[in-house]
DNA sequence: TTAATCTTTAGAGTTTACTCTAAGTCAAGC
DNA sequence: GCTTGACTTAGAGTAAACTCTAAAGATTAA
């Protein structure tokens, strides 16, 4: 299966504009063109796009992703660099997941808070609900009390 | 405990510039100033900053965060709006965590791949290691084969 | 009191990642 | 063959979130 730029874009939930931009930035050196100059994306190219997407979502900038692509083009002498990059990336992703779980706790707290507030028609929650007041201390107090 | 803009910034891992920018954008209407015009951040203000940080990290734009702050300023008649916002946000955070876990799987696969490649000094991994080849199908194949 | 450091404002500049336009070329269906 | 829609390039424009500058005023420590 081969894809035009439009089909590839659709599959990846991007626009053709974006794929051309990535190409211009040197992220897609592997994509071939027809004699008429039109890009053709192979299945393998789609796997590259999946990895580029993954690296982008985990916080790498396009120029850092380009660095990785460049290493891939340079051959086996860069294998260790690539391995190290992914090891670093693993740490970052794990940190991001932990951070997101903490954010989820804060959001859950706010939902509990506003459910209580809506029930009473007022923001005056902590006086009625000691449990929420304690939770608040745990989630917000630590940052504002400790550390200094 | 009260904080100058510089101290507040340090505590939140931001710069004073950024906090002034947030203020200019209407995100910090609660921050008071001294008679000489200098901002004073209270403990409560720091909690606001923690929530702003949380909303920012979970993907809200500053103008959407401002919307929330505005609702807070408007009083109890916006309680339900705020509750709904956090409920939506909860969904988004849960999706982000799931996405990150998928990204982690991809990164872990790449680490396994490159560890194998480094061991053999070559990128020619799938021929030697069928297990990795299958994993690759599971992680990348589904996106490139299904859906169309 | 005086130097060093912090804070103030308005406003200009930067970075990143798109996003769009124009003018033209190519491919598929009728 | 013709139309329609997708593709090409170079390059301009945009949005978001800072980031920095300059010039002046405030605060702190010796």
Could you explain how this protein is built, in words?
Two copies of one chain form a homodimer. Chain A is mainly α. Chain A folds into two domains: 2-74, Multidrug-efflux Transporter Regulator, Chain: A, Domain 2, CATH 1.10.1660; 91-140, no CATH class. Chain A is 70% helix and 3% strand. Chain A has helices at 5-12, 16-24, 43-57, 62-74, 79-120, 130-145, and strands at residues 32-33, 39-40. In chain A, helix 5 packs across helix 6. The interface between A and B is large, with 47 and 48 residues. Chain A binds a DNA duplex (30 and 30 nucleotides) through helix 2.
Helix-strand layout with pairing:
The structure is a homodimer of 148-residue chains.
Chain A: H1 5-12, H2 16-24, E1 32-33, E2 39-40, H3 43-57, H4 62-74, H5 79-120, H6 130-145
Antiparallel strand pairs in A: 1-2
Chain A binds a DNA duplex (30 and 30 nucleotides) through helix 2.
